[in-house]
Amino acid sequence: MEQIPFSVSKIVFIIFALSFVFGAFFIVKQKTAIIIERFGKFNRVAKSGFNFKIPFIDKKAGVVNLRVMELPVEVETKTKDDVFVRLIVSVQYYVVETPEGIQTSFYKFDNPARQIQSYVFDSIRSEVPNMLLDDVFSEKDKIAKAVQMELADTMEEYGYAIIKALITDIDPDAKVKHAMNEINAAKRLKEAAREYAEAEKIKVVAAAQAEAEGKKLQGEGIANQRIAIANGIKQSVEEVKGAMEEGVTGQEVMNMLFMTQHYETVGKLAEQGVNTIFMPYSPSTVGDLQTQIQSSLIAADTIAKSTRPSDFVKKKPAAKYGDNPNEANIG
After folding, report:
1. Which fold has domain 3-65?
2. Is residue 75 a contact partner of residue 161, using CB atoms and an 8 Å limit?
3. Ramachandran region of residue 31, left (φ > 0), alpha (ψ -120 to 50) or beta?
4. Which of 27, 170, 223, 289 fits a 20 to 30 Å CA distance from 207?
5. What pTM did the predictor assign?
C-alpha cells in the first residue's frame, strides 16, 4: 500500500516531463512564421526551423503565411457612357518578412483578404466611372497601375507588400457586347462595300481604256484600209488608161470601173442567194460615190508625197474616205 503513492507520483512526473518536452520544442515550416505570445502578450516571431518555447507560459497565437498570395476580386461598376461592366482584378501580395511586418500583419488585420478587397472596390469605382467603355479596354493597364499604387501605399502600413494588380477580365453586359459586335460587323461590311466598289471602278476604267484603245486601232485600220483601196483604184485607173487608146480621160476610165464594180457586186450577191436588195439606185448616187473615191485618190496621192525624204515640212493629214452604204460595193 505504501508503494502506490510513489507510482502515482512517478506517472505524474512522466506525464509532466513529456508534456514539457513536446510543448517546449516545435518545428516551423519553410515560408511560414508563428506568433508566440507569453501570458497573452506578443513575445516574438518564430521563423522556419527548430524552435523552443516555455510550456504553459508561451503559446502559439497563430501562423503567418509568407508565400506570395493572389486574391481575385470581382468588381461591377459603371463607365462614363453609362455601361455596366464587370472587372476581375487579381492582386498579388505577400507579408513583409521582418518581425515588425509579421507582427503588424497578424494583429492589425482581422481578415486581410476582405479588407484588401474593399480597397480594390474603392479604387476601381473611383477610376472606371471617369472612362468610356472603349477606354476601359484600351487602358486596362492604367487602371491596374492605379489600383496597385493605391494598395501599395495603404497596405505597407499593415505589413503587406503589393507585387502587382492585374485586370484579368473585362465583361460588359451581354446586350452591350452584342451591340458592339453589330457595330463592328457593320463597319467591316461598309469597308468591304467600299473595296468592292473600288474594284468595280478599276474594272470599268480598264474596260473603257481598252475600248478606247480598240476604237483608236480600229479607226486607224479603217483609215489604212480606205487608203489602200484608194491606191488600188488609182493604180487600176492608170493601168486601164495605159491599155486603152490615147485620148481616153481618167474620168471615162473611172466611170467604167464604177459600173464594172457595181455589176460585180450585184453578181456576187446573186451567187450567195440574195434575191432582193434595197439600196439607192439612181445616177446621182453613182455620182456621189464617184466624187468620194476621187477625194480618196487625191488624199492618197498627198500622203505619198508627204512621206518622201525630200519633204521636211509636216503636212496636215489627208481627208478620210467617208462612210457610205455603197462602200461595200468597191474592192
Report:
1. SH3 type barrels. (2.30.30)
2. no
3. left
4. 223
5. 0.51
Q: How far is CA 168 from CA 21, 75, 86, 175, in A?
A: 50, 12, 11, 21
Distant-in-sequence, close-in-space partners of 175: CB < 8 Å, separation ≥ 6 = none
Find, among 171, 146, 162, 170, the residue nearest to 91 by Cα: 162
Cβ–Cβ < 8 Å for 286, 263: no
The pLDDT value recorded for residue 314 is 45
Highest CATH level, class, for 69-172: alpha beta
Per DSSP, the three-state class of 248 is coil
Q: How far apart are CA 314 and CA 304, in angstroms?
A: 13
Note whether 173 and 96 are within 8 A (CB): no
Which three cell numbers mark 191? Answer: 469597308
Cell numbers that stand for 179 in this block: 451591340
Q: Percent helix, strand and coil across the chain, each rounded to 5? A: 60, 20, 20
| Average pLDDT value over all residues in the chain | 79
Q: In the chain, what are the domain boundaries?
A: 3-65, 69-172, 226-329
Please tell me which of 4-18, 64-78, 232-246 the model is most confident about, judged by mean pLDDT.
Answer: 64-78
Q: What is the pLDDT of residues 80-95, one digit of tens each?
A: 988 889 999 999 999 9
Q: Which three cell numbers stand for residue 139?
A: 487602358
The per-residue pLDDT for range 286-320, each reduced to its tens digit, is 566 666 666 665 666 676 666 655 444 444 444 44
